[in-house]
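re: ur question from earlier - yeah i can do the single chain one, its not a big deal. heres the input i used so u can compare w yours
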Amino acid sequence: MRQRLIWKVMALNFPVIGLVIGVIWLSIDYLAADYFTELMDQYQIAPNEIHGMFLDSVHTYLAGASAVAILLAIVVSYALSNRVLRPLKEVSTAIGKMSAGDRDARARTLSKDELGDLAGAFNRMADQLNRFEQLRENMVVDVAHELRTPVTNIRGYVEGLRDQIISPSDASLKVLEKETLRLANLVESLLDLSRADAAEFHLNSDSLDISEAISTALEDCAYHLDSKNLTTVVDLPDNTPRVLSNGGNIQVILNNLIQNACQYSPADEEILIEGERLPGRLLLRFSNRSETILPRDLPLIFERFYRSEKSRSRNSGGAGIGLAIVKKLVDAHGGSVGANFDNGKFSVWLTIPDLAD
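and the output i got, formated as tokens:
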């Protein structure tokens, strides 16, 4: 393929070469020949025979020079085209390796022109794909791990009840209910992620009182807050404007952010929820101390199935879906979302359009 491309690039030069030779040939035939005729007349020399000899001689030398020029043009053009297209060969080779399963294949950046930019863009794309593939593999392991534990527990209790090793009781039924809820919550999280992907294509905006929505989210997360003895402080501006909400998606965002703060906050700590009015937007910030999320995790925490806590324990970390859902839904509402560390506290902030007059 590369050889064919080189010849195509070289072929672009041939019309130019032919045009230059044609211009020179016609210039000699008309301009130089006319000047030669005038010169012969000036010296009173009959130009007929000499004029023909002059043109024949010039045409012979011009044909030879043209042949040499074309040959040199082919050699030089081939060498230059080969050099110019070398970055393209690097990209093509790297693509072939990646399609064969080598995820670490990269293209060398051999120039600083557009083709060099192409190689750099390919390498960045390959890095992104490699990271997404790693996250996907981790997701499969995480989901399998989290499904295995409740399924194994349910199976053990069901077999025990069937074989009458375990007698039906409130305690055993509560265990089965707890494990069933774990399965349901995981499936619901995956469904929420799917709905978040589709949210931007099914926007039906309504107005929402953000104060009431935060109160509802705190009620929904009361069990998680009480289990770790966490206190919450809500600091919203006076006359907080209503915001645009696509159905109940803003409520999903708030619930996920509060659950995330509960999940990663140490016991007996405080979760601070702040609001600030910006031109046309409302800024919300959720801050808490965290011993698990570190500054190095910030570029990745909104990726799907990324978890700063690596033990895959449900007690210290979820499936890595919550913040990915938040980002998709905030983007669908035309807002922005980010995270940072400030004074030792981990904060997730978001902006959403408001309906202020």
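Residues 311-317 have pLDDT under 50 and may be disordered. not sure if urs matches, ping me
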